[in-house]
């Protein structure tokens, strides 16, 4: 047996085409969406993401504003930049690349972003809105995972979902979105007992752990849908948190790494920027880009 491959790269390309169409329509009304990305320091992986975000932002017809600050920038200077971006009408979305250097208070920096421009959905206001079922900006990685799950499964109602990982940027918002779609959700983490046994109950298994090839084939329920969020650089190249070779023998469907969740994350960032621009201009939310 061999699983259906969920092609995030192709899905993301289709999403970007739809976004480009919407951007063109906005531009005809004199509105050009703008995304500001702030990178502090020189982490090579972060530089790669920021570069591909900037490139894809321009490709869909949006304006891209990149701000690169040295690692030793005082926090006050970063907060001052965020204030300027908050006040700039050409900027509809603001993303501050994480992680930040150790001398900065990540929570304070994130919460300085105007919630309406918080295209990562990381501010407490957007987290609270998502948790209470109000109209929010939803974190890009979980949103991309949700889109792929809906596309593959249709309804998620009543399905058993296990999310491995409880971070604020992936695990927790992923669980919220699955719950909103009426899945029965369990969040697992480093203290979870009998993780393999728990995973075997999952119709939907989302791995956001940060450990290469962590989830083994015999943890996967036959026919399950497996979403691999992990990005791990190893001597064998980029690999996910799921042992792909094993899991694809058992799963019904699975996302590859690379070419799965990663490209969807960037496409959803553009989707959120479009949504933020629509809301800032009193237009309805673009169809199919919000949960
Ligand atoms: N494709 C994409 O677009 C993105 C990919 N990523 C990738 O996703 C992965 C997760 O990212 P992130 O959520 O930020 O990571 P974090 O390090 O913030 O969180 C990892 C989570 O995994 C849990 N965990 C660690 N070890 C184990 C274990 N042995 N058993 C069970 N749970 C464990 C931790 O548990 P505890 O809380 O108990 O410590 C924690 O909740 C990384 O590989 C990251 O690179 C992240 C963002 C976007
Ligand atoms: N404020 C903030 N928002 C984020 O969304 C955010 C962040 N900080 N910090 C880092 C993580 C990680 N992340 C990825 C985005 C795209 C790929 C991606 O496109 N991956 C490609 C491979 C890219 C490669 O080769 O390195 C793929 O999986 O196919 C991966 C990871 C967003 N993050
Ligand atoms: Mg983290």
From TrEMBL:
Which residues participate in NADP(+) binding? 165-167, 231
InterPro entries membership:
Aminoacid_DH-like_N_sf, NAD(P)-bd_dom_sf, THF_DH/CycHdrlase, THF_DH/CycHdrlase_cat_dom, THF_DH/CycHdrlase_CS, THF_DH/CycHdrlase_NAD-bd_dom
UniProt signal peptide: none
Keywords, in A-Z order: Amino-acid biosynthesis, Histidine biosynthesis, Hydrolase, Methionine biosynthesis, Multifunctional enzyme, NADP, One-carbon metabolism, Oxidoreductase, Purine biosynthesis
Instruction: Specify the superkingdom.
Output: Bacteria
The reaction(s) annotated as catalysed by this protein in its Swiss-Prot or TrEMBL entry are: (6R)-5,10-methenyltetrahydrofolate + H2O = (6R)-10-formyltetrahydrofolate + H(+); (6R)-5,10-methylene-5,6,7,8-tetrahydrofolate + NADP(+) = (6R)-5,10-methenyltetrahydrofolate + NADPH
What GO terms are given for molecular function?
A: methenyltetrahydrofolate cyclohydrolase activity; methylenetetrahydrofolate dehydrogenase (NADP+) activity
Domain Tetrahydrofolate dehydrogenase/cyclohydrolase NAD(P)-binding stretches = 139-279
The record's section on SUPFAM superfamilies has: Aminoacid dehydrogenase-like, N-terminal domain, NAD(P)-binding Rossmann-fold domains
Every Tetrahydrofolate dehydrogenase/cyclohydrolase catalytic domain range = 6-120
Copy the pathway line from the protein's UniProt record: One-carbon metabolism; tetrahydrofolate interconversion
Pfam family of the protein (one): THF_DHG_CYH_C
- E.C. numbers: 1.5.1.5, 3.5.4.9
Biological process terms in GO annotation: L-histidine biosynthetic process; methionine biosynthetic process; purine nucleotide biosynthetic process; tetrahydrofolate interconversion
The record's section on NCBIfam families has: PRK10792.1, PRK14186.1, PRK14188.1
Assembly, per entry: Homodimer.
UniProt family annotation: Belongs to the tetrahydrofolate dehydrogenase/cyclohydrolase family.
What HAMAP family is this protein classified in?
THF_DHG_CYH (MF_01576)
Q: What does this protein do?
A: Catalyzes the oxidation of 5,10-methylenetetrahydrofolate to 5,10-methenyltetrahydrofolate and then the hydrolysis of 5,10-methenyltetrahydrofolate to 10-formyltetrahydrofolate.
In Swiss-Prot or TrEMBL terms, this protein is called Bifunctional protein FolD
Q: What organism does this protein naturally occur in?
A: Paracoccus zhejiangensis
């Amino acid at each position: 047996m061999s699983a259906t491959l969920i092609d995030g790269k192709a899905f993301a390309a289709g999403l970007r085409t739809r976004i480009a169409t919407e951007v063109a329509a906005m531009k005809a009304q004199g509105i050009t969406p703008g995304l500001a990305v702030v990178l502090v320091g020189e982490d090579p992986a972060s530089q790669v993401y920021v570069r591909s975000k900037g490139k894809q932002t321009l490709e869909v017809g949006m304006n891209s504003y990149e701000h690169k600050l040295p690692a030793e920038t005082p926090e006050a200077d970063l907060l001052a930049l965020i204030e300027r971006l908050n006040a700039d009408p050409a900027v509809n979305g603001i993303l501050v690349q994480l992680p930040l250097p150790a001398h900065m208070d990540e929570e304070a920096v994130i919460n300085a972003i105007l919630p309406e421009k918080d295209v990562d959905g990381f501010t407490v206001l957007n987290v609270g809105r998502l948790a209470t079922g109000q109209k929010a900006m939803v974190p890009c990685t979980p949103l991309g995972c949700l889109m792929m799950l809906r596309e593959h499964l249709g309804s998620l109602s009543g399905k058993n979902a296990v999310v491995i990982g409880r971070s604020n940027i992936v695990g927790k918002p992923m669980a919220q979105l699955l719950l909103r779609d009426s899945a029965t959700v369990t969040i697992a983490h480093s203290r979870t007992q009998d993780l393999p046994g728990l995973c075997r109950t999952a119709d939907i298994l989302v791995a956001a752990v940060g450990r290469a090839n962590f989830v083994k084939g015999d943890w996967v329920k036959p026919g399950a849908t497996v979403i691999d969020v992990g990005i791990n650089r190893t001597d064998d190249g980029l690999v996910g948190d799921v042992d792909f070779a094993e899991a694809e023998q058992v799963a019904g469907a699975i996302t590859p790494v690379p070419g799965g969740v990663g490209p969807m994350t960037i496409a959803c960032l553009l989707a959120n920027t479009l949504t933020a621009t629509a809301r800032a201009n009193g237009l309805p939310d673009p169809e199919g880009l919000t949960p």
